[in-house]
Description:
- By secondary structure, this protein is α/β, with parallel strands linked by helices.
- The protein has 10 helices and 13 strands.
- β7, α5 and β8 form a beta-alpha-beta unit.
- The longest helix has 17 residues, at 24-40.
- It is flat, with a radius of gyration of 22 Å.
Amino acid sequence: MTATPAGPSNDKRVLLAAPRGYCAGVDRAVIAVEKALEQYGAPIYVRHEIVHNKYVVQTLEKKGAIFVEATAEVPEGSIVMFSAHGVAPTVHTEAAERKLATIDATCPLVTKVHKEAVRFAKEDYDILLIGHEGHEEVIGTSGEAPEHITLVDGPEDVANVSVRDDSKVVWLSQTTLSVDETMETVDALKEKFPQLISPPSDDICYATQNRQIAVKQMGADADLVIVVGSKNSSNSVRLVEVALGAGARDAHLVDFAEEIDEAWLEGVSTVGVTSGASVPEVLVEGVLEWLSQRGYEDVELVKAAEESITFSLPKELRRDLRAEAAALAAGARSTR
């Protein structure tokens, strides 16, 4: 279905957000799994979901990827890939101890936050990490300097925060948060710690921000916003919140078109559609087709930004990792 630039209102229309879907970090991670399977054959073990999207994970599983929750689940002498969300240094140590060949598919923007955490910890700062407890990215970043990092899970958490020295405090953030909520948390932290230092550059990734801006632009004009994405995808969940905050009457998160409830369309003339940064376009096309079959055939594009960023694939894909894994395993057996 071809989208046209936004124009006058019709009885039934769809406002389609741009940009939406895959960001550069997700694209890199998914291609990395596919390339590893092509080069080395199945199985390729992946620690946690490579990205937070049910369809992507199921598709890669069919090709031979095996997703595990812990490094200990990966057989000795195998190849394991670390997801786009990043891992703590202890995970790299665990992999080395199990004689695993590794591929690090951590998003470069997450790696940037990890490096910031290491640098500020070396300078003995207290680091206030704004993020959601239990999220893989937060676990990975916290693991870089656990003795220096305190998690701040939203503005309401600020009252519980204490530091050693008010003059040596810096904030960092999970890359997939709501921009508005993050700044609300930062403002509350600055009120409590006036000398709070900000990171050298914005931690919330460009893709997260652009997708939220697009949703804000269409939210006030939409009776209903459908966000395509998985429930464990932080940036997708945030898009629902941003849509409602921007004035949408209703907003829902769905993995697939068949999850849309027709009751949501009652009295709805304008439907906004977007997708999280880990969502392939085929799922959005399915939603547009579903809406078209119910009379929402007029699709208007709401464009917030152009995206041209790309990331090179993990350098480990240029090595013979199967041979490397076999040598590591053989070396381990010979020392027993």
